Amino acid sequence: MQAIKLLLALSGFTLIQFAYANAPHFKVDLVKVDKSARTMLLYSGNTLVKKYKIALGESPKGHKLQEGDNKTPEGSYNLDYKKDDSAFYRAMHISYPNEFDIEKAQQDDLNPGGFIMIHGQKNGDTKNPTITQRFNWTNGCIALTNSEMDEFLALVDSGTKIDIRW
Known about the structure:
- It is a single chain.
- Strands 3-2-1-8-4-5-6-7 form an eight-stranded mixed β-sheet.
- The protein has helices at 2-21, 99-107, 129-132, 146-155, and strands spanning 30-34, 39-44, 47-53, 75-83, 91-94, 117-119, 142-143, 160-165.
- It starts with a helix and ends with a strand.
- It is an alpha+beta fold.
- Helices cover 26% and strands 25% of the residues.
- It has a single domain (26-165), classed as L,D-transpeptidase catalytic domain-like.
């Protein structure tokens, strides 16, 4: 009986250690996207916390100029709110367009578009996300797998800066 009690106590301790080891310990204060490498990096200060492979808009090279161009914007933005009721599995909004984007679009008599997100896979999609993520398939958003999206949302708070470059 003593052995069973000891085993239960140790297994409970191990579960607590496992849960703690997998809990986020860092406050992510910067998200960097390298469109040319199709990667997204999460930083806490100067410490790299996490690296993701991403999918982008169907025409990823160059800055988003107008709605419908299938480009992922480039520049400095904020991740301003989380969205659970999306056409995609969970999402976080990018504050595109910024003042520069709006001014540029007005000069060129264009609609800059908006509603650019970091999101998971399309709801109801039965394709293997490991394969889907090998292609640029969004309309200008940044896509992760659903499990990566869960992790991302646990690590990143609204108000975090995001820097997107080619």
